[in-house]
Amino acid sequence: MSEYKDSILVLRTYKLGESDRILSCLSKEHGKVRVVAKGARKPKGKFGGRIEPFTELNASLWRGRGELDTLRQVDVISLNSSLHEDLDKMMKAATVVELVDKVSFDGQELSELYTLATRALRLLAQKDSANFLAVFALRLLVVEGLAPQLEGCRVCGDRKLTSIEARNGYGLCVVHGVSSPVSTGVIEMMRAVLAGKTASVLNLEMMDESVEFEAVVIEYLESVLSLRLASMHSNDSSLMF
Ligand SMILES: [Zn+2]
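That is the input. Now the predicted structure with zinc ion docked in place:
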């Protein structure tokens, strides 16, 4: 048994007994961790009000023999409380933590994912964007090594792409494309994000293309990661936490 310190992002919380919580967290240096926070549901306990999904903490943890570590002490890095106050932001933040939860496994080194997710949530807490989820999902695909290949058509190299292969992310031109068409504006936004120009795409106002951008990226992501995001396909936000 030993004590260790790390930064953690709370993904999910579960009730345990009368007053405790179990937290599923992504940590910066120890990958995914499951932690017991004793007394976390007591309003006047030492963790009072700080153990919520989307919260980023500097934590002191105790590694026991079982699967669960124990949370000893926390300092808040970022509460991101505005994500609980705005329904639209909350839905997006829920998708971020759901995605992070689904792509992360115990024992993996996940510092790049940690940095991406915590930066994204802090940014969303400050300012919403119509393109937020699509940008986050694309950067997550980059971290996972599954970014779509949009330099040119897979068959002929033509720069003018009109569709994206759902299974492997290759762009295709109008002659060689078979799947549903993607507009030029969306291809350009995707290229910008893949080139690291996330701020310019996040700062774009809501456009017709924003809806298509999100739909195209999420469809590709779900296909390539073989998953379905409950938070993207449910109209009932009360189901989520
Ligand atoms: Zn072609």
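The pocket of zinc ion is lined by residues 153, 155-156, 158, 172-173, 175-176 (CB under 6 Å).
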